[in-house]
Amino acid sequence: QVQLVESGGGLVHPGGSLRLSCAASGFLFSSYDMSWVRHALGKGLEWVSGINGGRGRTNYADSENRRFTISSDNANNSLYLQMNSLKPEDTAVYYCAKGWVGAPPWGQGTQVTVST
Questions:
Q1: Which of 37, 69, 75, 85 could form a disulfide with 102 if both were Cys (CB 3.0 to 4.6 A apart)?
Q2: Does residue 40 have a pLDDT over 80?
Q3: What is the phi/psi pair of residue 77, to 5°?
Q4: 72-78: long-range contacts at Cβ-Cβ below 8 A with a sequence spacing of 24 or more?
Q5: How crowded is residue 98: how many other Cβ atoms within 10 Å of its Cβ?
Q6: ∠93-94-99 over CA atoms, to 5°?
Q7: Residue 102 — very low, low, confident or very high, per pLDDT cuts 50/70/90?
Q8: What percent of the chain has pLDDT over 70?
């Protein structure tokens, strides 16, 4: 079955960076679109970024002020999200998902907290 394990979150000051990782198993990772979504306390689920199955196309929720970069390592069935210039409003639990739209199943998520 699909298994996704997110890691790499933590506490960071505004302006800092984090690199999230997602270890995927149970499906042919290189053939599927993958995405990152986040859920902030008291808010709805927000799609953050996606990468297509061919790994040649990416998209971001905030394309004009892009601070995040999605990437993958097909050899290691891993998905990444490099997050730079973090802001307090980026505080959320981040999940990776199989598919473009970020629908479940997810892993346990990884908490990102941006605070002074």
A1: 37
A2: yes
A3: 50, 45
A4: 72/29, 72/34, 74/29, 74/30, 76/23, 77/23, 77/24, 77/25, 77/29, 77/30, 78/21, 78/22, 78/23, 78/24
A5: 21
A6: 140
A7: confident
A8: 100
Count of all residues that appear for the chain in the document: 116
pLDDT-derived band at 55 (thresholds 50, 70, 90) equals confident
- What does the pLDDT read at residue 43? 94
pLDDT at 97 over 90: yes
* Average pLDDT for the chain: 94
Q: Decide: 82 and 69 in contact? Cβ < 8 Å.
A: yes
Q: Residue 82: enclosing H or E segment and its boundaries?
A: strand 78-83
Backbone angles phi, psi at 57, to 5 degrees: -130, 135
Rounded to an integer, what distance in angstroms lies between the CA atom of residue 80 and that of residue 68?
A: 10
